[in-house]
Specification:
heterodimer; B: 40% strand
């Protein structure tokens, strides 16, 4: 056996969604903030992302996080998030995996029954409250960066579908939110392929027709993701809903999606459908759940915003020593259109799903 | 972090097809033959297959190799194979991956530049030769597959949407329908696999409707499960592009060991390939496997051919898989 690049990866999932955590083997990543480190990795070492996430090591449903030194002195750790087609600014399920791996492997000390963590994501500081018992993180509750609606009830023209009315909302990634009822779809595991095909079409159309710029960080990408939202159900004071987020290049999020749930909270609040502190239980296509609410309201540039809190549980499923044989023909991994929808080539300087 | 079960695996790919070789953590596997061991494991421990193959620990393309003590006295190791949809007695890309991993990690000692590894499988004893470089790397593996044979040669079937299509039906470990995709107006393009999968499944359906396919000596093996599209090479000496579509509709990442065996047997049977003459297949990932007819034989009363397959494999991870029984997804899930 001969390897010339080795990295140590703790495999983890949060409510079904993969969130591998790279804990060793990556050299010093320059940059004053985690956002700058994210740009550095994208511009200088994208082969690392391809090695972990593309086949033969990865698959279309895999995500990973690289632990890096934080730029903000208040943070205990930083992490750069890697996905199939981008380096997102924030991801809830990945953050739950990072917090769980940090505490359960002892990279950071665990205090029972509650450990408070402050982490630096590319989107900024994220506080995570971890319930801990017998060495296990039984619940990770994160407070996300503010989420806000750019546009409500805006029409998008989608090839073969015609005009679809959508909302454009930032929740750590920039989302299109559309009711599945309006698309004539239902959220069911057997319908996953159809949901993905239509979800991708709406996402790409919206990204081409609607340009948005984050008021505080113009380098945050425009529309790259979509929530297909199920109808709201009221149980006492609580609101329940199922959703599926179609992650690029076209597969269902296995979890209810943290940034998607944040965007949904902002959308519901902007429409007067949820109050601060009201419990919102979000269920994924696999049946897994996130427990969420709005902590407070704030503003981002000219937009009214909400501070979302999302909770779920993550599980460590493996420890991988990944390596690259210098004679392996797949030095940069590969993708095939059957499961990846399209062949994923080098990342352009992505600004949105339209490019 | 807590584990109720801990498995050590080597993740390897052969031609892009992922193999997960389990070398520690399995329960004792009893049985007088390798087939009994595979069947006993399937009835008592099938949760291990689901855990290692399915999400979130695996992915739908994962093929898991279970290593056991061999039954055959001359074998180095015993092995059987499991996937998202069940168990396999033999698998070509897994054999290339397993041989590479056993030699490169010192579990079978290197005896020279051509180191022989004998693997006892439910399909019989497989002899594989690892071609070992000076630095210890296994540059390629050649193994002799179970005999392949052709049951239907150059007959025409009517395929909805495509009209009359000339096909072969051949066995190389699975039954394949084989068709020339250039005549179907399809291109060999990794960006557009959906037309290839749809055409392959249509041809398979038409061939199953037209022919009652039965293995001559294994009565439980009936029907065509796999489809194989090929394109004549642009120049003589170039590899033959091939797309193998597996029963679930997935595209084999590798050029497919059993599929290449089926094709080589077919060409040998028609006199289009001589003993020892190579046929190289190239898959959509660019990976190549080479098949050669070694000797004529029979399966039942059907003329058949022993075929050697050569390909390369690479170790991509040395991994520990953890199972916390409190995790609701401990035994995995499948989302299509």
């Amino acid at each position: 056996m001969r390897w010339n690049r080795t990295i140590t990866v703790v495999d983890c999932h949060a409510e079904g969604e993969s969130g591998q955590v790279v804990v060793g083997g990556v050299p010093y990543v320059p940059g004053g903030t985690v956002f700058e480190k994210r740009l550095h990795l994208q511009e200088n070492d994208d082969d690392l992302r391809r090695m972990i996430l593309f086949e033969p090591r990865g698959g279309v449903h895999h995500n990973a996080n690289i632990l890096v030194a934080p730029g903000d002195p208040r943070a205990q750790m930083g992490y750069v998030i890697l996905e199939s087609t981008e380096y997102p600014a924030m991801s809830g399920s990945n953050t739950m995996c990072v917090a769980t791996v940090l505490l359960e492997t002892g990279i950071l000390p665990m205090t029972e029954p509650v450990t408070e963590l402050t982490l630096e994501s590319p989107a900024g500081l994220i506080t995570v409250t971890c319930d801990c018992r017998d060495g296990k993180v039984t619940r990770a509750r994160l407070v996300n960066q503010p989420a806000f609606a750019y546009h409500l009830d805006i029409p998008v023209t989608v090839p073969d579908l015609g005009e679809v009315v959508v909302d454009i909302v930032y929740g750590g990634m920039t989302y299109v939110i559309v009711d599945v009822d309006k698309l004539g779809l239902e959220i069911h595991p057997a319908k996953a392929r159809e949901l993905c095909t239509i979800g991708e079409a709406v996402k790409v159309a919206a990204a081409r027709q609607i340009d948005v710029v984050h008021p505080e960080n113009p380098q945050i990408p425009g529309i790259t993701n979509i929530v297909l939202a199920g109808p709201l159900r009221h149980e006492g004071d609580e609101i329940h809903a199922q959703n599926t987020v179609v992650v690029s290049p076209g597969r269902c999020d296995r979890s209810p999606c943290g940034t998607g749930t944040s965007a949904r909270l902002a959308q519901l609040h902007a429409k007067g459908l949820i109050e601060v502190g009201q419990r919102f239980v979000h269920t994924s296509i696999t049946g897994s759940m996130f427990d969420s609410h709005i902590v407070s309201t704030t503003s981002v540039g000219p937009y009214d915003a909400v501070v979302p809190s999302i909770a779920g549980q993550a599980w460590i499923t493996g420890i991988y020593q990944m390596g690259m044989d210098p004679t392996d023909p797949f030095q940069r991994g590969f993708t095939l259109a059957d499961t990846w929808m399209r062949q994923i080539d080098d990342l352009p300087p992505v600004h949105s799903a339209a490019e | 972090m807590h584990a109720d079960h801990l498995f050590k695996v080597l993740d390897v790919h052969a031609g892009g097809a992922p193999s997960r070789i389990v070398y520690s953590g399995l329960p004792r596997i009893d049985g007088a033959t390798m087939m009994e061991r595979m069947q006993g494991f399937a009835s008592a421990h099938d949760w291990i297959r689901r855990t290692l193959v399915l999400e979130p620990r695996g992915k739908d393309m994962t093929s898991v190799v279970v290593l056991t003590e061999p039954v055959h006295p001359e074998a180095h190791v015993g092995a059987f194979f499991m996937e998202a949809h069940g168990y396999l007695p033999m698998c070509g890309s897994d054999t290339i991956a397993t041989t590479t991993a056993l030699v490169e990690t010192g579990q079978v000692p290197v005896t020279g530049p051509d180191t022989v590894v004998r693997i006892d499988t439910p399909a019989g004893l497989i002899e594989a030769t690892a071609h070992v470089e000076d630095d210890g790397r296994v540059s390629s593996v050649t193994f002799v597959n179970a005999p392949g044979f052709c049951l239907v040669s150059q007959e025409t079937v009517d395929v909805p949407g495509h009209g009359a299509v000339v096909v072969d039906v051949a066995y190389g470990g699975n039954f394949y329908v084989i068709a020339d995709a250039s005549r179907l107006g399809l291109s060999f393009d990794p960006l557009h696999t959906r037309p290839l999968v749809e055409a392959a499944q249509a041809v398979r359906g038409a061939a199953n409707a037209a022919f009652a396919i039965r293995h001559p000596t294994l009565p439980e093996v009936t029907g065509i499960t796999h489809a194989q599209l090929f394109w004549p090479p642009a120049r003589e000496g170039d590899p033959t592009p091939i797309v193998v579509v597996i029963p679930t509709g997935g595209v084999d990442r590798s050029p497919c060991g059993t599929g290449t065996t089926a094709k080589v047997s077919t060409l040998f049977g028609r006199g289009e390939l001589a003993l020892g003459q190579p046929l190289t297949h190239q898959s959509l990932t660019g990976a190549r496997f080479t098949g050669r007819p070694l000797e004529a034989t029979t399966v039942g009363d059907v003329p058949a051919c022993r075929v050697s397959i050569t390909g390369s494999a690479y170790i991509v991870a040395d991994s520990t898989i953890l199972v916390d029984r409190r995790d609701e997804m401990a035994e995995g899930f499948l989302l299509t």
